[in-house]
Amino acid sequence: MIVGGVQWEQRLRRLEQGLRTLPDKPEESPQAALRALWFLAAGTRLSVQAAAERQPPQLDAAQLQALDAWIDRRLQGEPLAYLLERQGFMGLELLCGPVALIPRRETEMLGQAAVALLREAAQSGHEPCCIDVCCGSGNLALAVAHAVPTARVHASDLSPQALQLAAANVARLGLQSRVQLHEGDLLAPFDGAQWSASVDLLLSAPPYISSARMEALPSEIISHEPAMAFDGGPFGIDMLMRLLRRAPRLLRAGGWLCVEVGLGQGPAMGRLARGDARYSEVRMVLDEQGNERVLLARRAAAGSDA
After folding, report:
1. CA 8 to centroid of chain Cα atoms
2. Is the separation of the CB atoms in 155 and 141 below 8 Å?
3. What is the pLDDT of residues 191-224, one digit of tens each?
4. Which of 230, 306, 247, 234 is closest to 282 using CA atoms?
């Protein structure tokens, strides 16, 4: 039994005294961090979520020294997911690295809403088509493909490095036959006529932090995670506005735009969507505090285009 032993308790106290976790990473506690880093020192890379399900092994003197070095790096502000090179998302164990945003639990609200909508589309008998833009490590695209086996999923990102990570995750999960990656800015990879009115679900967790607020982000974020994954322009809604304007061309009648929005952005984005005749229905998904964090907008019949 390792948990509760002297070696464990000494290191747990270090983390309890020095670790400052971010509210958008609620899965990390001092004990959860220690468990995952303990496995890392033993030579096994596991996400915090996966490490919680296993009994930590015995460590020898050299491994305990390595553990202390990993703890030092975490206390100096390196994100735990980057140290582990793993992050859990909607039950999937994904590769993680500094070329892409660390998947957040709050984004699982978006993923769960997308899965529910895509399952509805699959009931019609055809293979539903989903596009995930700003895909990063591929977490949303892969969660959707894993949960809806008949779905055809396309994922795009502007960063070739992020797409390399996404490709590694696609291969890791064995989803190469149903998940295709595209490089380009937002919807640019889908400009061809073959994409017009063909998509059942357009999905995105885009950058939505205003440029002015970027410097105020915690150093754990701004010093380690890619800035382009956060910077949403002067008001934080540049990408959201572009998606709202351009999505109807791609969506089939009854198809859905499904996007994550920042704190405080939901009411304004909802009003904009409801004022656009190309959308026949708008829903908002609330977090546990009652904040509107996911916008769902349904494509109206083509005859309603403005």
Report:
1. 32
2. yes
3. 999 999 999 999 999 988 888 888 888 889 889 9
4. 247
Domain ranges of the chain: 6-84, 105-304
CATH number of 6-84: 1.10.8
Question: What is the distance between the alpha carbons of residues 142 and 211, in angstroms, rounded to a whole number?
Answer: 29
Q: What is the pTM of this model?
A: 0.93
Nearest to 80 by CA among 3, 26, 43: 26
Dist. CA 188–CA 42, nearest whole Å: 44
Q: Label the pairing between strands 251-260 and 129-133.
A: unpaired
SS3 133: strand
Domain 105-304, CATH: 3.40.50.150
265 and 233 in contact (C-beta within 8 Å)? no
Rounded Cα–Cα distance for residues 304 and 87 (Å) = 43
Inter-residue contact 272 to 224 (CB < 8 Å):
no
| Position 304 confidence tier, pLDDT thresholds 50, 70, 90 | low
Alpha carbon 174 to its chain centroid, in Å, reads 19
Question: What are the pLDDT digits (tens) for 77-136?
Answer: 999 999 999 999 999 999 999 999 999 999 999 999 999 999 999 998 889 999 999 999
Joined tokens for residue 148? 């809806």
- Are 205 and 260 in contact by the 8 Å Cβ rule? The answer is yes
Kind and range of the H or E element at 110? helix 108-122
For the CA atoms of 285, 288, 292, 294, what is the dihedral angle to 10 degrees?
-40
Using DSSP, state whether 201 is helix, strand or coil: strand
Residue 236 DSSP code: S
